[in-house]
Design brief:
Length: about 475
C-alpha cells in the first residue's frame, strides 16, 4: 500500500470518527437541552394544576365534609378543558390510587404512582404507540383528601427533531468526507511528492544512472532528506568513479607490465637462441651476451622496483629523525664518481622526520631520471632548503623537459615520456611511481616544474620533528 494512500485512509478514518462523535454529542446536547426545558415546563404545569385544583376545591359549596368523587371529576374536567393548553391530559387518583378521572388518550400506566409522595414531584418519559410523552406525578390536598394528579405532555416533536438532526448530520458528514477525501488526496500527493521523486532517483541509480539526482521541491524535512540523498549520491558516484579509475589503472598496469616483460624477454630469448644454435665469432658472442645481460639487469631492476612499491604501500616502515646533510652526503658519494655528468650540491642544515632508506631511494630515482633526461656532461643541481613548515629537497636538470599535458601521468607505473630513450638506459617507468608511493607514506607529494627543452625541477617537502635534536 502506497504511503499517500495510507495517509489518505487514516485521515479519512480520523475525520469520520471525529465527525461521528462530534455530531452525536452536538445533536444529543441540543436534544437534552430541549428535553430539560420540556420537563421543567411539564413539572411547572403540574404544580400549577395542583394549585388550581386545590383552589377550586376550596370554592366548592360546603355540602359535605369530604370532597366527593363526582366533584373531583368535575374539577378535573374543567382543568383539562380550561387554560391555554386545551389539549392537556390528566388523571386523578384517590388515596388508594384508584382512578377517579382520566382524560381521553391518557395511556400511561400506574408505574409512576409508586414513586409519587407528598415530598417530591416525579416524572418519566414514556413511549406509547410510537409517540413520546412526559408523564408527571404529584399530590393534591383537597378538603382533607390526598389525591394523586398525573399529567401527560406530548414531546414527540423533540424526538423527531433529534432524528432529523442525526439524519442531516449524517448527510453533511458524508458530503464533508467526500470533499475531505478529494482535498486530502491533493494534499497527500503534494506531501509525498518528494518521496516519489526520491523513489524515482533510487530506481534510476539502481539501473546504473549514477548521474541522476532527485529534484528538491520543498524546504521541510523531506527537502533536507533530498539534499542528504543527493550528497550521498555524489559521494557514491565519486567512489564508483574512483573504483573504476582504480580498475582501469590496474588493467593498464597489467598491460604495461606484460609489455615491459615482453620486450626484454624477446631479446633475451632471441640472443640466447642465437648463441645456442649458431657458431659465432668472439665479437658477435660478446654482443649477444651483452644484450642478454643488459635486458636481464633491466628485468632485475624492474622486479626490485615493483617489490619496493608493494612494500611501501603496506606502510611497514618506522620513522625517525634524519639529518638532511647525511642524505646529501650519501648522494654525493654515489654520484661523484660519475665522470660523464656534472653535479652541483647546495643545501642547508636541518633535520627531517622520515625513513632514511626510503628517502634515499626517492632521491636516487630523481637523480637517475635527471641523468636520463640530460645529455652527456649535462649539469644536475641538487638543493636543500630549510622552511618553516619543513625541509624542501630539489633535483634540477637542464634536459629535454616534460610536456605539461603529460606531467600528471609520469607517476603512473610503467609510464615513460620518451620510451625509446628510457629503455635504452634500462628504464622501466617505475621510478617516479615508487617515489610517489614513498612520499605519500611520508605525508608529502612530488612537485614538478618543467618546460620542454629547458629542463625539469622535481621537489618535495618533508616535515620537521616535533622537537628537533642534534643528529
Amino acid at each position: 500500500m502506497k504511503f499517500s494512500f495510507k495517509l489518505l485512509l487514516w485521515t479519512m478514518i480520523v475525520m469520520a470518527l471525529g465527525f461521528g462523535f462530534s455530531g452525536f454529542y452536538f445533536v444529543n446536547y441540543v436534544f437534552q437541552r430541549s428535553m430539560d426545558r420540556e420537563v421543567s415546563q411539564a413539572l411547572d404545569e403540574s404544580s400549577i394544576l395542583s394549585f388550581a385544583f386545590e383552589t377550586a376545591a376550596l370554592n366548592v359549596p360546603a355540602k359535605y365534609d369530604v370532597l366527593q368523587d363526582t366533584t373531583i371529576g368535575q374539577i378535573a374536567l374543567n382543568l383539562e378543558s380550561g387554560g391555554r393548553n386545551a389539549g392537556r391530559m390528566l388523571r386523578l387518583s384517590d388515596e388508594d390510587k384508584q382512578t377517579l378521572y382520566i382524560s381521553n388518550g391518557f395511556l400511561g400506566d400506574n408505574g409512576i404512582l409508586a414513586q409519587t409522595d407528598p415530598a417530591a414531584r416525579t416524572y418519566r418519559i414514556v413511549n406509547q404507540r410510537g409517540r413520546y410523552y412526559i408523564q408527571t406525578g404529584s399530590t393534591v390536598n383537597a378538603l382533607d383528601r390526598l389525591l394523586y394528579l398525573e399529567t401527560m405532555k406530548d414531546v414527540s416533536e423533540i424526538f423527531k427533531d433529534r432524528d432529523m438532526g442525526f439524519s442531516v448530520y449524517r448527510r453533511v458528514t458524508v458530503v464533508m468526507l467526500l470533499c475531505g477525501t478529494l482535498v486530502m488526496h491533493l494534499i497527500s500527493s503534494l506531501l509525498t511528492r518528494p518521496i516519489r521523486l526520491l523513489t524515482r532517483a533510487t530506481k534510476r541509480m539502481a539501473a546504473g544512472d549514477y548521474h541522476y539526482r532527485a529534484r528538491k521541491v520543498s524546504n521541510d524535512e523531506l527537502g533536507q532528506l533530498t539534499i542528504d540523498f543527493n550528497q550521498m549520491a555524489n559521494a557514491l558516484e565519486d567512489n564508483i568513479d574512483m573504483l573504476e579509475e582504480e580498475i582501469q589503472n590496474r588493467e593498464d598496469f597489467v598491460a604495461a607490465f606484460a609489455h615491459e616483460l615482453k620486450t626484454p624477454l624477446t631479446s633475451i630469448i632471441g640472443y640466447a637462441d642465437m648463441l645456442r644454435s649458431h657458431k659465432l665469432d668472439e665479437e658477435k658472442r660478446f654482443v649477444s651476451a651483452n644484450y642478454i645481460y643488459t635486458e636481464g639487469k633491466r628485468l632485475e631492476a624492474m622486479s626490485f622496483r615493483l617489490l619496493d612499491i608493494i612494500v611501501t604501500r603496506r606502510g611497514e616502515v618506522s620513522f625517525q629523525k634524519v639529518s638532511a646533510e647525511s642524505l646529501f652526503l650519501y648522494l654525493y658519494d654515489m654520484y661523484v664518481i660519475n665522470k660523464t655528468m656534472k653535479f652541483y650540491f647546495n643545501y642547508d642544515d636541518g633535520v627531517v622526520w622520515a625513513e632514511a632508506n626510503l628517502i634515499k631511494s626517492v632521491l636516487i630515482n630523481l637523480l637517475d631520471n635527471a641523468c636520463k633526461a640530460s645529455e652527456s656532461e649535462g649539469l644536475i643541481e641538487v638543493y636543500g632548503h630549510q622552511l618553516e613548515r619543513g625541509y624542501r629537497f630539489e633535483v634540477k636538470d637542464h634536459g629535454m623537459g616534460i610536456p605539461k599535458e603529460e606531467q600528471h601521468k609520469i607517476t603512473q607505473a610503467f609510464y615513460m615520456v620518451d620510451k625509446s630513450r628510457s629503455r635504452s638506459r634500462n628504464g622501466a617507468g617505475l621510478g617516479l611511481a615508487l617515489c610517489a608511493e614513498i612520499l605519500f607514506l611520508h605525508g608529502s607529494r612530488l612537485e614538478i616544474k618543467s618546460q620542454p627543452g629547458k629542463g625539469t625541477c622535481m621537489s618535495f617537502v618533508l616535515s620537521k620533528p616535533e622537537k628537533e635534536v642534534e643528529v
